[in-house]
Design a protein that fits this description.
The chain has 393 residues and is mainly alpha-helical. It contains 21 helices and 3 strands. It folds into 3 domains: 155 residues, Tetratricopeptide repeat domain (Serine Threonine Protein Phosphatase 5, Tetratricopeptide repeat, Alpha Horseshoe), CATH 1.25.40; 85 residues; 47 residues, Single Sheet (Rubrerythrin, domain 2). Bound molecules: zinc ion.
Length: 393
């Protein structure tokens, strides 16, 4: 069967070529190679068995000209999609070596070769190639896009920003939020004594994405370090407007600011108002309970939390309520304490809304799906109990 196909290949190629020429003459417009679908199907069978031999035949058979370039590209793409990057590279390199290619076709083949390198993980070669392509006019859209990917992987944030600004963003893949994340990465690397530079990087982050929570958290931390608590409070509280799901990250920082300003009463009022606006914020509820305990004692805190838990049950709330109580039931209370401690210890605190990755530390760049700012804090509710009780996590 295989030999037959080999034998038929030149015949099929010739007839395909003739068909394409006839078609071209009739229509007076450029056509793809014009091979019949059957030919391609047969070819694919052949390729499945002995792809390297087939490439030799194919490269030798098909003259590279404006009519067959598309066929070469299609075949190479097929190999790349199947994960056979070496073969795709061979075909693309063969194409590029031909002097008959138009400059547009050459560019296309170079872009494809760059994508092969990306697939194969040879980033230095891909980088070199796409940098060359940046000098072309018009710049192929893949060039800045792939370079941005490379610089992200290599954590070269300044270059990543540079490339992201050249990527033509569409509604589905906006780049402004990415650029803000890259500025935050840069700001985090600035040594403490050069704070002014960090502030200006964060301003750039806001400029590209006014709702960048990460920039607010970083700015808040910087302001706290230099003792500017009032300013820090203003910055950190704006996270409620940016994305209230991240407020739990800001609460401990806010507490420090209000404490240092001697304004814990105002902090309590703010938390109370916050909870009426966002009743799902278990972290705010727990913090408020702690403040009440500090200022008015255990009983007041217990009463507050009890009322709250009826409306917004959560494991952590229950745990705090038990911890507030006295050990007056010798068997039951210690047991419940142990169970809630285990549950809270087991639960993940952060989860990716894109891929479901979850863990106990905050990542701004998801290790699961590589998206930026897709991971956010989760508030643990009783409804999540079943998941927490699963034996292997
Ligand atoms: Zn993810």
């Amino acid at each position: 069967m295989l030999e037959w196909l080999f034998f038929l290949l030149p015949v099929a190629a010739l007839s395909g070529w003739l068909m394409a020429r006839r078609h071209y003459k009739q229509r007076y417009k450029p056509q793809n190679s014009g091979f019949s679908p059957e030919y391609f199907k047969g070819l694919n069978y052949l390729l499945n068995e002995q792809p390297d031999k087939a490439i030799d035949v194919f490269i030798g058979l098909l003259e590279v000209n404006s009519e067959t370039v598309e066929t070469h590209l299609a075949l190479a793409n097929l190999f790349r999609r199947r994960g056979e990057t070496d073969r795709a590279i061979r075909i693309h390199q063969n194409l590029i070596a031909r002097p008959t290619l138009s400059s547009q076709q050459r560019t296309q083949a170079l872009v494809e070769l760059g994508l092969d390198y990306m697939n194969a993980g040879v980033l230095d070669r891909a980088e070199h190639l796409f940098l060359e392509l940046l000098h072309q006019s018009p710049v192929p859209s893949e060039a800045p896009k792939q370079l941005m990917r490379i610089y992200q992987q290599e954590k070269k944030w300044a270059q990543a920003i540079d490339m992201a600004k050249q990527v033509t963003a569409d509604k589905k893949h906006p780049t402004h939020a990415l650029i803000a994340q890259f500025y935050c990465e840069l700001a985090e690397q600035i040594p403490e004594k050069e704070q002014q530079q960090a502030f200006s990087l964060l301003r750039s982050a806001y400029h590209h994405d006014p709702s960048c929570v990460r920039a607010s958290l970083l700015e808040g931390k910087l302001l706290i370090k230099s003792g500017q608590y009032r300013k820090a409070i203003k910055i950190l509280q704006q996270i409620e407007q940016q994305n209230h799901f991240y407020l739990s990250e800001a609460l401990p920082l806010l507490q420090r600011c209000y404490e240092n300003n001697g304004q814990l009463k105002q902090f309590r009022d703010w938390l109370q108002a916050l909870l009426t606006r966002h009743p799902h914020l278990t972290s705010a509820r727990l913090l408020l309970t702690k403040l009440i305990q500090k200022q008015e004692g255990n009983q007041a805190a217990q009463q507050f939390l009890q009322r709250q838990l009826y409306q917004h049950p959560s494991v952590e709330g229950l745990h705090q309520l038990i911890m507030l109580g006295e050990d007056n039931h010798q068997v039951l209370i210690p047991l419940i304490k142990e169970v809630t401690t285990a549950l809270i210890h087991k639960g993940d605190r952060y989860t990716c809304k894109n891929c479901g990755f979850s863990g106990r530390t905050m990542h701004w760049h998801c290790p699961g799906c590589s998206q930026w700012a897709s991971i956010r804090p989760i508030e643990i509710h009783l409804s999540a109990l079943e998941k927490l009780l699963e034996p292997s996590r």
